[in-house]
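anyone else get weird line breaks when pasting these?? whatever heres mine. first is seq + tokens for prot A
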Amino acid sequence: MSIGLSIIVSLAEYIGIRRKDPYYEALARRLTIALVVFFCHRHCQWNCPCR
């Protein structure tokens, strides 16, 4: 899932830059936030110091 989301973020960013489309740029920003949350959650799940 993380590889697929990274590719989708890259494609949205590329399309936003090529077409100068603010909607694709906003989509890329929102997907980037989702990607960061996904990776942080997985990292904390495996290396959580709370356990």
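and prot B, same format (seq, then tokens)
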Amino acid sequence: MDKERKTGNSPVDQRIVKVNGKKYTSYYFPLNQAPPDEAGVLVDFYHLWRNSNLEKDIPSRKDLPFEKLTGWHSYIRIVDMENSTPKEDKIIVSGERFNEYFGKQTMRTEINNREETDAAVLEEYQEFLNHIHNGQYAFVIGHAPNIDSRLHRVIWLDLPLSNDGTNVSHLLSVLVPLK
């Protein structure tokens, strides 16, 4: 990725994860830093999210009403991280196209539903949560099986939302399949 980067944006961390047939690389950036050019149309979504409330560190769900997300509805998922259980996250919104690639379960649920829980996968998921709760978001590149069970290249953003402008209460994910 670094050789392809045109913006000069450097992630604060990078992680490679494999879970349930999905392999992806997460790049973590500070909330006020736009994703790299290779994020394509997701750069526009980042700016929509970031500019929805410049007075707060983290925008809230109220700052992004349904009308502001026109054209993105099918590609997003919002997870309530405050009212989730240790075993399962509570999904608030999950678009049809998003579900084609990630199904109707969150990563936490997928990990917890595995017959054998891999300690390394749990550690990576906890690291992901640490980044999200500590003022960063994720730009992710990877492969995911869609409903036809073939692997497809996808990119997505995992962006925090907050009820109070500071503490993460929800996770907004937006996914774009690549050709």
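btw re prot B: Residues 97 and 149 are 14 Å apart (CA to CA). The radius of gyration is 15 Å.
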